[in-house]
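INFO batch 0412 | record 1 of 1 | parsing
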Amino acid sequence: MQFFREHARILFIIAAIIFGAFILYLMGALRPLLWLGDYTIEPMQVGAYRVIDRINPLYTASDAQLQEENIELKNQLADTVTRYNDLLTQLDQYQEYSEQLAFAQESEYEIVPVEIISRVGQGVATDILTVNRGSLDGLKEGYPVMYDNGVYIGVVYDVFDTYAEVAIVSSQLTSLQATIQTDNPAFGIISGDVGEALTMDFILKEQLLSEGDVVVTSGEDEDIPAGLLIGTVDQIRDEPSELFKSATVRPLRMYGSHSIVSVIIPN
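INFO prediction complete | emitting tokens
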């Protein structure tokens, strides 16, 4: 209270000035003064913004610039996704070939890794696979092709300098001798059937077979080693009027586009 008593006059004058200025503002008497202030201060603000923008540019890009930047960012993202997918494909191929190489080393096979680049060929499209290696890489007609841990795919059917065509096991273009792994092994001839099914003919009547029995190459065909996995017995046909049994075999092919498979080079 003592402060207000000692400075009462000064406080009264300040309050009177503020009140008077408020009244003049309401009456519009201060507009010229406000305009003069804006006219004087605005150039200073613009200059200050320019100086700041040179030091740390503000986001004043046009719509066209923003759209261009957006397109560039989308292209960079698409490129990154493509490279990521390529790396995944390469990783899958490396793992596929590692398994084939381990099997080949254990079995003492010499192999040439090839990539499936096309499924278009003679007959049904899936009967022929095109691979990216040819005669210049040591491939010859009749050489067997495998996948995974010794899964038989088919044979080299036609060879060119830099690529070759592979007739898959379910193709009607080829046939081979096979063995059904039972306590008393059964022998027969594997050939292609409708779709991806295989038929095994000329099995002796006295041979005991069961669904699920494993079928492998017999080793009796030139250049095709014994023990490559073909598939499993799916159905058994034993007609009394026939001299031999036959069986439907389900192939164990597990490769896809751009898979790495291996051509076995005979010793």
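INFO post-check: The first helix runs from residue 2 to 6.
INFO record closed
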